[in-house]
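Please produce the structure of this protein holding WTA.
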Amino acid sequence: MSDQLATLLDEQRRFPPDPAFTAAANATADLYQAAETDRIGFWAEQARRLTWMEPWHTTLEWTAPHAKWFLGGKLNVSANCLDRHLAGPRRNKAALIWEGEPGDRRVLTYWDLAREVNRAANAMKARGIRRGDRVAIYMPMIPEAAIAMLACTRIGAVHSVVFGGFSSESLRDRINDAEAVAVITTDGGYRRGQIVPLKRYVDLAVAECASVTTVMVVQRLAGTASAEAGATMKPGRDFWWHDLLRAASSRCEPEPMDAEDLLFILYTSGTTGKPKGIVHTTGGYLTQVAATTRWVFDLKDEDVFWCTADIGWVTGHSYVVYGPLANGATVLMYEGAPDWPNRDRMWEIAARYGVTVFYTAPTAIRAFMKWGTEHPARHDLSTLRLLGSVGEPINPEAWIWYHSHIGNGRCPIVDTWWQTETGAIMISPLPGVTTTKPGSATHPLPGVSVVLLDTKGVALAKGGGFLALTEPWPSMLRTIYGDDARYQETYWSRFPGRYFAGDGAKVDDDGYWWVLGRVDDVLNVAGHRIGTMEVESALVDHPSVAEAAVVGKTHELKGQALAAFVILKEGNHPTAQLKDDLKDHVARKIGAIAKPDDIFFVADVPKTRSGKIMRRLLKDIAEGRTLGDTTTLADPAVVAKLKDQYESDEG
Ligand code: WTA
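Below is the modeled complex.
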């Protein structure tokens, strides 16, 4: 065991729940017992908290690796997130509180949101969009992003949200893979004071998408900025959102959807060059996101919940939109950068709206740490009562900083492990119940079966190994869109009959889980999943590149950064200019988030006899260190070791 991991597992600090929190908590310790006694019945009980149009006849049908939950049941997601709150006192409650980066503000009550969603649903119908059709959503963080998602669910259309930071080529590939009939976008959005011309990117993408017949454009930019951003409208294909909605009625009957009907597709990076369209269905997904929101974020009617994730990622789907709204909560949404115009922007917003529950990524926390305590200290954060973390391992230092400087030592922290594929939180403390340890996601949630495996698939009681899931869960991915063979191969072949998450983990003597990071060729850069193969494909697409190998290197803020080893084609010369060109090329092919931090021009890359790139060696070179000499929680040496084991056993 490396020193670093030993230190980590030596972490002696314990944070038991505050009895006052426990007394009022949504989650109770007996949930574990109930789930243990009858796991399937336990999930059925959670599902019954939703509003169903028709009851299900079979709770679970499991023919590994294919699960069907709540068979025969019918429901509508938008009706669960909106209509059922309109009859009572929540009708006039804020559903969405939104702030744009330039400082513009909007509040939509449940009534307002329902009206907009109904009108958008009718507008989509008027454009011929039907149940089962796929609709791509490419938007900044504005209320219409959530409205568009909910409107799709109202009519039974399947949304595919594409993160607004992805390039037009990435957008094009995702639209084509899903054969989307429509794209919903904006003329632009704001990021660090700059305009991001989304409609212009959509035009480039859609020019190569035969399936798209409608582009709906929300006008986000005022006056001339809209035209300057290149939002020209193609007659017959492009329509202003406000024109379509003005003509639409504000009553649209929610489509009764089968529990197993597709709800959305969300593309995520895998270990090949081609992103995977993760498929989620209606009843199981909503059941588990609603239940986990209630337990893990402890949401009450008075809360203001701020999940800082972008709608383009699964966290934005499950914990900005569906989970909180299904619970009738108030959600805060912010469009822009955390340091714009100042480094206290987040705390200024949190204080202004009296945010009570705050959920963000370790990358952000490490940036806040670096910026200094004076920024949060300037604001009254006394309304905060619970903090959450997601997306990467959180190092104990960041955990303690978050606890002291944002939570003022009062707020429990929930470190939540889950994935695009799991749909909802799987491993997390229950606030009010669980004693936490800084850096540990603690225990699987009730109803979730997690196991630690060695390379041979033998279950381990403790120590280091691979994280796998042994029983189906309601919000599990159902397949990869259009490629069920890849679904089976990717998740179920490494340890037959069990879902392999791709993460390495440790279980300590007290049975606490410490998720260490990916052991496959997926990197986690600032909490964003990026496949090394995707970046390699983008690099070799450049005319001067013969071969490329991409590895993750430890990064103080981002957790991991990308380092690329590039072999140039004959006649090309390694120059600083070429490095910049290659970085820009990757940004154009994938998006700025995939830009390598470092590019090394090399004559060759080390490979195993079977031709596999020796990534561990490259990683060492990129980090300029010998193994073991590292500083972050997800000890790269340990992960590298697990990774080596994983890869060598794979053959
Ligand atoms: C990582 C984000 C450690 C992990 C919800 C996983 C984490 C990948 C945690 C999924 C956590 C997520 N501790 N690692 N609390 N949460 N991860 O699909 O490697 O964008 O496999 O979903 O993020 O990333 P995804």
